[in-house]
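@channel sequence for tomorrow's demo:
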Amino acid sequence: METRILPCGDVVSRALAISGACEILASGGVVAVPAETVYGLAGDALNAAAAARIFEAKERPFFDPLICHLPDLDWLEKMTSIPAGVAPLVAALVKAFWPGPLTLVLPKSACVPDIVCSGLPTVALRWSAHPVFQQLLTRFGRPLAAPSANRFGRISPTSAEHVRRELAGRIPLILDAGASVHGVESTIVAPSEGGLRILRSGPVTREQLEAFAPVVTACEAGAFPEAPGQLKSHYAPRTPLHLLEEGEAVPGNPEDCGLLAWRRVRPGFAALEVLSAAGNKVEAAAALFAAMRRLDESGVSVIYAERVPPGGLAEAINDRLERAAAR
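structure tokens (generated this afternoon):
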């Protein structure tokens, strides 16, 4: 299969790219799309065969559910059966964070295929803020299931080129809208009458969510995950990755090693990436996956990565690093 990359940098090219993507989606195919978080692999969320093609292209296990992206708020009611006691909290979260990088896990309605939810009674829903993704959803007129556009367990893509390296020959089309803004996947929460459970940390932080309800973290999966990104090993480079506290010495000789540093340059490494020299966690999150990918492709024998100090987006960044280090 030939994989085309279509630019979306101006009005004309964007319209052509979206038209081509809609033709593929309407036939039950899949396309890679830009989002403000990371690039996603999209297919018709209400078409079980299209969802199966997403799992196939990513080599994703069928027990790991997909996130569905909505064209508009009317689809929230169509795809869910929200209990009355939870509805006010859901409405408040939607008003505050949609469109944006927050995914809500809610009881699903009958229209959602079981394969999309991995047989669970819940569905994960989001309304993306990316203008190209929004225009595609509006033109297509139906929700799109869209996990990250990479092979399962690998580093998430934050550019069209990253998607090409992961999925060339497996999918027909990639829409190129430049680098993702946030650089990490959406925050996933499960609202209930008792509060909010964070199932995956992301750009919407714990501190922001605590303004709406009591928050607990449930980022580890049980027998099967309730949401994407809960498996112990995920977001992983091919090269072994080990975690360090900021400033912690590297065991042994660093000359054959790569370092993913939080903010300070440390000499002696064969390859070095600094997430944010200014100590800006938003900048660090946006740079994380691209920096990890460059180190993975540098030929070093091992990658060391410094944890980010607590607060704000550190929870999301460190979560990705911990899962990348798990084997």
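heads up for whoever presents: The longest helix spans residues 11-26.
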